[in-house]
Design brief:
Strand content: 15-25%
CATH topology: Purple Acid Phosphatase, chain A, domain 2
Helix content: 25-40%
Oligomer: single chain
Mean pLDDT: 90
Shape: globular
Strand order of the largest sheet: 3-2-1-9-10-11
CATH architecture: 4-Layer Sandwich
Number of helices: 9
Radius of gyration: 18 Å
Order of helices and strands: EHEHEHHHHEEHHEEEHEEE
C-alpha cells in the first residue's frame, strides 16, 4: 500500500508502520492539534474542518480536542490564538490545553526578566507586538528587560495569564500519551521531568525504544506528519508553511486533517 497523501498534497512520512492494536478508549474521538505559533487564521480554518469532521460522530461519542502547545511567538496573532483557546472554539468538545516550550519561555520571562533576550529572539517580539507592544531597534538591552516585562504585563489580560499558568504538560488517552516535545527514553512515564516534556529533541527523536505508549508530539517541525513505531510528530511549521495539522484518533484509526486540504487515513 502506498503512503497516504496528506491534505497539503505531500506524502505522510511513515518510516515504519505503527503497531496494530493501539487505540484510544471506546467511545472517544480525539483531535490533537499541532504547534500554532500565532496563526489564528489557520486555527480558525482548522476548527472549521474539525467541526465538519465531527458531524459524523455518533451522539454517544465523546469528542476531545488536545492542543499540543506553542500557541504564541513567530506568527502575528498570538493574542488572538490565546483568546480563541480561552473561549469555546469547538462547542461540545472536551478541551485540553498543553504547555509548549514557547509558553514556558514567556512565563519564565515574566518571573525573571533577565531571561527575556532568548525568548524575544525566538519569536517573543511577535507575541508582544500582538498585544500592542512593539520593540524598537536598539531597545533590547539587559537593562531594559525589567521595564519591557512590566509594559508587557500591563497589556496581558488577567484571563490570558491565568490560561498560560493553567496549562498541562501531558495527557493520556488509551495507548497514547500527548506531550509537547517528547519524553526521556528509559524514564517511566510518571517520572518524566517537565523540562523534557517541553524541550527534548534528539534523545527522543532518534530513540527506537518502545515507551509503553505511542507518543504524540509537536515541537520539532517537519514538512509533513511523521509516523514511527513509537511516536507521531505533527508540528508542520504552521507559521511559515501555512499547514496546521490535526491528528484524529478513534479506536485503532489514525488520520489527519490540515488547513490546506481534506482528510487522509494514517
Amino acid at each position: 500500500m502506498s503512503d497516504p497523501i496528506n491534505p497539503a498534497g505531500r506524502k505522510t512520512s511513515h518510516h515504519q508502520s505503527l503497531p496494530s492494536g493501539w487505540h484510544v478508549p471506546h467511545g472517544q474521538r480525539l483531535y490533537a492539534i499541532g504547534d500554532i505559533h500565532g496563526r489564528a487564521d489557520l486555527l480558525d480554518e482548522l476548527h472549521e474542518r474539525i467541526i465538519v469532521d465531527a458531524e459524523n460522530a455518533s451522539s454517544s461519542t465523546v469528542t476531545i480536542s488536545v492542543y499540543l502547545g506553542d500557541y504564541v511567538d513567530r506568527g502575528p496573532h498570538s493574542m488572538g490564538v490565546i483568546e480563541r483557546l480561552i473561549g469555546n472554539p469547538l462547542p461540545g468538545f472536551l478541551k485540553v490545553n498543553l504547555k509548549g516550550n514557547h509558553e514556558d519561555m514567556l512565563l519564565r520571562f515574566l518571573d525573571d526578566p533577565a531571561q527575556g533576550l532568548g525568548w524575544i529572539a525566538n519569536g517573543g517580539a511577535a507575541t508582544m507586538a500582538s498585544y500592542g507592544l512593539t520593540l524598537k531597534d536598539g531597545n533590547l538591552t539587559s537593562e531594559r528587560l525589567p521595564s519591557i516585562r512590566d509594559e508587557f504585563v500591563a497589556r496581558l489580560p488577567c484571563e490570558h495569564l491565568k490560561f498560560l499558568q493553567s496549562l498541562l504538560v501531558s495527557y493520556v488517552s488509551g495507548d497514547y500519551i500527548l506531550v509537547h516535545a517528547g519524553i526521556r527514553p528509559g524514564v517511566p512515564l510518571e517520572n518524566q521531568s517537565e523540562d523534557d516534556l517541553l524541550w527534548i529533541r534528539d534523545a527522543f527523536l532518534h530513540s527506537p525504544r518502545k515507551h509503553g505508549k505511542v507518543i504524540v508530539h509537536g515541537h520539532t517541525p517537519t514538512t509533513e506528519p511523521e509516523l514511527h513505531p513509537n511516536r507521531i510528530g505533527i508540528d508542520t511549521a504552521a507559521h511559515t508553511s501555512g499547514v496546521l495539522t490535526c491528528l484524529v484518533l478513534e479506536g485503532e484509526e489514525r488520520r489527519f486533517i490540515a488547513t490546506s486540504g481534506g482528510l487522509t487515513a494514517a
